[in-house]
Specification:
about 300 residues, mainly alpha, three-stranded mixed β-sheet, 12 helices
Length: about 300
Amino acid sequence: MKKENQSSASEFILLGLPIRPEEQGLYCALFLAMYLTTVLGNLLIILLIRLDSRLHTPMYFFLSHLALTDISFSSVTAPKLLMNMLTQSRSIRYAGCISQVYFFLFFAVLDSFLLTSMAYDRYVAICHPLHYTTIMSQRLCFLLVIVSWVLSSAVALLHTLLLARLSFYGGNTLPHFFCDLSALLKLSSSDTTVNQLVIFTVGTVVITVPFLCILASYGRIGATILRAPSMKGICKALSTCGSHLTVVSLYYGPIIGIYFVPSSDDTNDKDVIVTVLYTLLTPMLNPFIYSLRNQDMKEALRKWLHRGNFSV
């Protein structure tokens, strides 16, 4: 009998966002605008960095990878969310759900590692300016990105394989708008002790450790600034620190609020809404943060627009 029930759980039902039916159209248009802004804004950042030779530096190399990751991260959940809201179909196949878990974790962890690499770049630029070009070589930059991709893939694969061994013959309704790992573990009828242990240990490594490294980097940066006799030598290096710190706060704030602050046994509406912040809102805001608060990006955009006007 269990095998029959288990085989029948070939799909999951996503309850979606806590929105009233009459407001579905409004929110669907809003989320579509946010998703398109995310894709176009981050593509613009990648294009500007590619076209402007002045932006061919380690900081913008990492920023271009962060922009690509943000596009991919939003694309894991946003298209399915929009389709479900438009068609009123809330189902997702088992294979699709498992794939969504893998790519969601992959790009979430990759974001964390890239933000850490960017913090290290700022630390070297401000605390060791004379050795910056030697330390932040092209080889090291490529190595940091490759290691970030490999580790992110390994972490996502580990969680996905552990999830795939679980049974779901007790129910198939997820109180979320995508296949969230924690919601799936609560839904499973199998023993999830190993999964929870891996989430705690691996989560500490890929989220807490990078976050502490970022804080340590900016602690050293702050100490260096206070000891500096003049601000002129480090003003240019500091121009991207404010933008980076803002992005770090937007990324880690919701994650800490959801996964490290105790909540009730059932996934509540607050958790679902906060998840929207770092899956849709944060990737959308990143291009504005880096373009509005960064003089190099504004100059590159101005140059590109000026060139476009002359070509017309």
